[in-house]
Design brief:
- Two copies of one chain form a homodimer.
- The first copy, chain A, is an alpha+beta fold and about 110 residues long.
- Chain A has one domain (about 5-100): Winged helix-like DNA-binding domain superfamily/Winged helix DNA-binding domain (Arc Repressor Mutant, subunit A, Orthogonal Bundle), CATH 1.10.10.
- In chain A, about 55% of the residues lie in helices and about 15% in strands.
- Chain A has helices at about 5-15, 20-30, 40-55, 75-100; strands at about 20, 55-65, 65-75.
- In chain A, strands 1-3-2 form a three-stranded antiparallel sheet.
- In chain A, strand 2 and strand 3 form a beta hairpin.
- In chain A, helix 1 crosses helix 2.
- The longest helix of chain A is centred in the last third of the chain and has 26 residues, at about 75-100.
- Chain A is globular, with a radius of gyration of 16 Å.
- The mean pLDDT of chain A is about 90.
- The interface of A and B includes residues 6 and 16 of A.
- The structure holds a DNA duplex (30 and 30 nucleotides).
DNA sequence: TGCGATATATAGATTATTGATATATACTGA
DNA sequence: TCAGTATATATCAATAATCTATATATCGCA
């Protein structure tokens, strides 16, 4: 199957309550999806960089246990984008389910 | 948003009741999704060829109004794959919604 | 007679993701 | 104490799904 394109929505949602660093976001997604969604570093970090370049999130570094961590937080534009992405997501799911529930064709 | 990966599932479903030619499948998907899903020739035909190579569907040509049309029909393996893809789809939707409905994080 | 819909097909570009690799620290178990 | 695993970030090459453009050909309509 391999459905792609949900990561930005998920990241924006996870950040909507409080700032998190990348690794934590990925763990949250994995945990809350019961292990079904498992985004790796190679996907996660480039996506975070893109969202930051788009002005939807912003980052700051913070030392923790002697290590630098990059925290991300939602910007106002990101909050708006999250609402929009949620609507797009439910629209897409509705559209596919509508076809699958239909008696299959003509 | 740009969610990718649903086309094979949708094609298998549309073919599950009776054979169709490619253009018809795309129109069905577009119509039944209220115009939200709109797969073009450049996506549709390569995907049909792939599904055929995988042995999930088979095709035959039929003359209609003086024009050759390529009809596709589900094979037994395709019927099994459809069930499997449906489960994967609902699992994926459940996983994403579980995260979105969660209070957002830790 | 020319345009839009029908119908199939392929090539090139773009986007999302995976896997591999790199680097570095912390914790845990043998 | 040493190895393996988890934490943490980052980049690159490869793959997969899709889009755009292009090609070709027929049909019906204005």
């Amino acid at each position: 199957m391999n459905i792609k394109g949900s990561l930005p929505l998920l990241i924006l949602h996870v950040l909507s309550s409080q700032p998190h660093h990348g690794y934590e976001i990925a763990k949250q997604i994995n945990l809350q999806s019961g292990g079904l969604l498992d985004f790796r570093g190679g996907t996660l970090y480039p996506t975070l960089h893109t969202l930051e370049q788009e002005g939807l999130i912003e980052s700051y570094t913070q030392e923790e246990n002697g290590r630098l961590r990059r925290y991300y937080q939602l910007r106002e534009a990101g909050r708006t984008a999250l609402l929009h992405e949620r609507e797009e997501w439910s629209g897409f799911v509705r559209a596919v389910n509508q076809i699958l529930e239909g008696g299959a064709s003509i």
